[in-house]
Write a structure and sequence with these properties.
binds xanthosine-5'-monophosphate; 9-stranded mixed β-sheet; alpha/beta; Rossmann fold; 3 domains; 18 strands
Length: 517
C-alpha cells in the first residue's frame, strides 16, 4: 500500500520468512514501514520517499545463479541502508567484501561481542549479547571501505559499517525475539542513522487505510464476508468507517457457528456500526449437504462449496458491487507462499487465503495484508470494536463441523454448541481466556457406559482441547488448573444431555494438530 505517511522505511524482500517481522519491529518504533520487491528501481524508491532501506535476509546464496539481487543503483542514492544476513552479504558483494560458504550452516543462538559502543549504530548494545544466526554463507573479509563492528566465535564479521556511505550490515537477525537486544540496533538505525522522528502511530495507519480504500473504490459497492472472527470484523469496521453505506456485509449462518455468534455479529454491525448486514440463513442447506458424510475432507469440500453458493446468490442482489474485502493477514499470505511482493519461501499451505474464488468476479481488497494478528487486534480496538471481540480465539471457517466427528447432524451440533459455550464461559471466569490461544470442545462419535443417578447411561464422550501457541503452526496443550477442568467437566455432564464422559487432550502439535476433524 502506498500511503501518505511522510516518514517511512522500505524493506526490500529477498525471500526472508522474517521480512514482515522486520517491518513490524520498525512500526513498533513508531516509524511506518512497508515491504517492497527486492528488484525495486531507484526511481520507484524515490516515489516512496523513504528515510532508509533495509535489505532483508533470504534463503539464497549471493553467488547462486538466479538468486535475487537488488539494483546496485540503490547504494548511490545517499539513503541509509541496513543489510540483514543475505542483505548484508549482497551489500558486501556490491561494495567490496568476500562472502564465503561456511562449512556448517549456522543456525541458532550465538554470542556476539563488540567494543564499538561509541558508534551511533551500536550505541547501548551490550558488549556481549545473545543473537540469532541462521545462514549458510557469511562475510569472511571486508575491503578497506568497511569496518567490522562485532563478531561471534564462528563469524568474524557479525556487524559492519561502510566508512563513507551510511551503509550497515548484520549477519544475525536483530528482528527475532531470540536476539533479545536486537531491537536496539534497529532503533539506532532508525533514529541515529536515518534520523527518523518517530511520529507514526497505529491510528495513522487506520486513517491512511481509510483514505486509501476510499480512493480505491470510488462510488462502487464493497462486499465483506463476516464470520464473527477478529480479522473479518476489523476489516468490516475499517470499511464501515471509510465508506459507510457503500459497504454491504454478508454473514452466512451455516448452522456451524458458536453459540450466540450470529447475534453478536448482528449487534456489532447493525446496532453499533450501522452497516448494511445481510444474514443468509443457510442452516438447512448446509445440514442437507452434510447428511451421511463422515469423511473430514469431504465435509470441508461440501461446506466450502455451499458457502460459496450462499455468498454468491446473496451478493448478486447487491447493486454496483465491484469489490470483495477479505481479512487476509500477513501470516496467511506467507504461510501459503502467496506473498505477492517477494519470493518468500513457502512454509505451509494455509486455509484462509483465496477463500472465495475468482469466478465471483470481484476485485479484492485486503487492507490487513501487511499486519500481524496482534496489530490487527490493536487496530480493532482503535476502530472501536469491543475488547471481547478483538480478543476472540480463532475459529475455523468450517466451524463446529470439524469439531463434530463423524456425520454432522443437528442433535450433535446442539450438544457441541452448549458444551463449547460452557468451556469458554469457565475459562473466562477463571481469567484465563487471554492466557490461552484456542479453547474448544470436540464431540466424539464414541459412546461409553456411565451411571447417572441409579441409571445406566450409554452416551457420547467429549474432549476439551486448549492450546497455547504463538503462530498456530506449533502448539502445546495448556496446563489448565485441575479445578477449572473439574468445573468444566461437571457442568458439561450435568447441563448437556448426551455427554457422560469428558476428556482433556494432552497432545502437542506436532505430531497432533489443533483441531481434531
Ligand atoms: P490445525 O488443526 O491445522 O489448525 O493445527 C491450525 C489453526 O488453523 C485453524 N483452522 C482453520 N481456520 N479455516 C480456518 O479459517 C479452516 O478450514 C481451518 N482449519 C483449521 C485452527 O482452528 C487453528 O487455529
Amino acid at each position: 500500500m502506498n500511503t501518505t505517511s511522510s516518514e517511512r522505511i522500505l524493506v526490500l524482500d529477498f525471500g526472508s520468512q522474517y521480512a514482515q517481522l522486520i517491518a513490524r519491529r520498525v512500526r513498533e518504533q513508531n516509524v511506518y514501514c512497508e515491504i517492497v520487491r527486492h528488484d525495486i528501481t531507484p526511481e520507484q524508491i524515490k516515489d516512496h520517499n523513504p528515510s532508509g532501506l533495509i535489505l532483508s535476509g533470504g534463503p539464497s546464496s549471493v553467488y547462486e545463479e538466479g538468486s535475487p539481487k537488488c539494483d546496485p543503483g540503490i547504494f548511490d542514492m545517499g539513503l541509509p541502508v541496513l543489510g540483514i544476513c543475505y542483505g548484508m552479504q549482497l551489500m558486501c558483494d556490491h561494495l567490496g567484501g568476500k562472502v564465503d560458504s561456511t562449512h556448517v550452516r549456522e543456525y541458532g543462538r550465538a554470542t556476539c561481542t563488540h567494543s564499538a559502543g561509541d558508534d551511533p549504530f551500536m550505541k547501548g548494545f551490550p558488549e556481549t549479547a545473545e543473537v540469532w544466526m541462521s545462514h549458510g554463507d557469511q562475510v569472511q573479509t571486508v575491503s578497506a571501505d568497511f569496518v567490522a563492528l562485532a563478531k561471534t566465535s564462528t563469524c568474524p564479521v557479525a556487524a559492519i559499517k561502510h566508512k563513507t556511505l551510511p551503509a550497515y550490515g548484520l549477519q544475525f537477525h536483530p528482528e527475532v525475539t531470540h536476539s533479545p537486544e536486537g531491537w536496539m540496533l534497529l532503533k539506532n538505525f532508525l533514529y541515529e542513522i536515518c534520523k527518523c522522528s518517530g511520529a507514526w502511530k497505529l491510528a495513522n495507519f487506520a486513517q491512511e487505510m481509510i483514505d486509501h480504500v476510499k480512493a480505491q473504490v470510488g462510488d462502487a459497492q464493497v462486499i465483506c464476508g463476516l464470520s464473527g472472527g477478529v480479522d473479518s470484523s476489523v476489516v468490516a469496521a475499517l470499511l464501515s468507517k471509510a465508506i459507510g453505506s457503500q459497504l454491504s456485509c454478508i454473514l452466512v449462518d451455516n448452522g456451524l457457528l458458536r453459540k450466540g455468534e450470529r447475534e453478536m455479529v448482528e449487534e456489532q454491525f447493525t446496532d453499533h456500526f450501522k452497516t448494511d448486514l445481510r444474514v443468509v440463513d443457510g442452516r438447512a442447506q448446509f445440514l442437507q449437504q452434510l447428511k451421511g458424510i463422515d469423511d473430514p475432507q469431504e465435509k470441508r469440500r461440501r461446506i466450502g462449496h455451499t458457502f460459496i453458493e450462499c455468498f454468491k446468490s446473496e451478493s448478486e442482489g447487491i447493486e454496483n458491487a465491484k469489490f470483495l474485502a477479505q481479512g487476509t493477514l500477513y501470516p496467511d499470505v506467507i504461510e501459503s507462499g502467496a506473498a505477492k511482493d517477494g519470493p518468500a519461501a513457502t512454509i505451509k499451505l494455509h486455509h484462509n487465503v483465496g477463500g472465495l474464488p475468482e469466478e465471483l468476479g470481484f476485485e479484492l481488497i485486503e487492507p490487513l495484508r501487511d499486519l500481524f494478528k496482534d496489530e490487527v487486534r490493536a487496530l480493532g480496538v482503535e476502530l472501536g470494536l469491543p475488547e471481547h471481540l478483538v480478543w476472540r480465539h480463532p475459529f475455523p471457517g468450517p466451524g463446529l463441523a470439524v469439531r463434530c466427528l463423524g456425520e454432522v447432524v443437528e442433535e450433535k451440533l446442539a450438544v457441541l454448541r452448549e458444551a463449547d459455550a460452557i468451556v469458554i464461559e469457565e475459562i473466562e471466569k477463571a481469567g484465563l481466556y487471554r492466557k490461552t490461544s484456542q479453547l474448544f470442545a470436540v464431540l466424539l462419535p464414541v459412546q461409553s457406559v456411565g451411571v447417572m443417578g441409579d441409571a445406566r447411561t450409554y452416551e457420547n464422550a467429549l474432549v476439551i482441547r486448549c492450546v497455547n501457541t504463538d503462530d498456530f503452526m506449533t502448539a502445546d496443550w495448556s496446563r489448565l488448573p485441575y479445578d477449572v477442568l473439574a468445573t468444566m467437566s461437571t457442568r458439561i455432564i450435568n447441563e448437556v444431555s448426551g455427554v457422560n464422559r469428558v476428556c482433556y487432550d494432552i497432545s502437542s502439535k506436532p505430531p497432533a494438530t489443533i483441531e481434531w476433524e
